[in-house]
Amino acid sequence: MEPVTRLDRRFSADDATPTPWAEAREQLEHAETYWLSTVRKDGRPHVTPLLAVWRDGAMYFCTGADEQKGRNLASNLNCALTTGAGSLHEGLDLVVEGLARRVTDPAALKELAAAWEAKYGATWHFEVGDGVFVNVAGGAAQVYELRPSKALGFRKGRYGQTTWRF
């Protein structure tokens, strides 16, 4: 299903056009690093870089249950993943917002583990344990799906802010 796309004229150049969702989706798929924003129990934000995979209309990421982001998600599933060019005058920065959902199905985890390794190489090989990824050192990582409820695109150069609602 394609999202509803809207250019926000308040934050866009006069000649800007909305960024097509297909372009944003491709960048989400091919980006290598992302920034995950979660919320601590006391309401303070927490932001950290991580790796992620785009599959079947959602972003997937993993974290240890005892890591700050894992503890945050245990109490508040609202989060955002961000990626972009880090440049002022060119590129497209993206923010994907929504509720994270734990992935525990063994078949889904096997597919995601294969996707991780295909994207990032053998260094990021995971086995599948009891509802988690297991790394070579034996550490467990919970896997989360972030299916967008809203995404934002910030085009540089011919500045334009696009909102996609799902």
Summing up helix and strand content along with how strands pair, one would put the structural category as alpha+beta
Shape call:
globular
> How would a crystallographer describe the biggest sheet?
12 strands, antiparallel
CATH topology: Pnp Oxidase, Chain A
Please give the alpha-carbon distance between the first and last residues. 8 Å
Please state the CA-atom Rg, rounded to the nearest Å. Answer: 17 Å
Order of helices and strands: EHEEEEHEEHEEEEE
CATH architect. name? Roll
Give unreliable regions as ranges: none
At the first level of CATH, what is the class?
Mainly Beta
Query: Could you tell me the strand content as a percent range?
Result: 35-45%
CATH superfamily: Electron Transport, Fmn-binding Protein, Chain A
- The pLDDT mean sits at 96
Q: Fraction of residues in helices? A: 10-25%
Count up the domains.
1
Total number of helical segments? 3
Can you count the beta strands? 12
What oligomeric state do these chains adopt?
Answer: single chain
Q: Helix and strand layout, with pairings?
A:
Blueprint (H helix, E strand, L loop, with lengths): L3 E5 L12 H10 L3 E6 L5 E6 L2 E3 L2 E6 L4 H8 L2 E6 L8 E12 L2 H15 L6 E2 L4 E2 L5 E7 L3 E6 L4 E6 L1
Antiparallel strand pairs: 1-12, 2-3, 2-6, 4-5, 5-10, 6-7, 7-10, 7-11, 8-9, 9-10, 11-12
GO molecular function: coenzyme F420 binding; oxidoreductase activity, acting on the CH-CH group of donors
Protein name: Nitroimidazol reductase NimA, pyridoxamine 5'-phosphate oxidase superfamily
Organism: Nonomuraea maritima
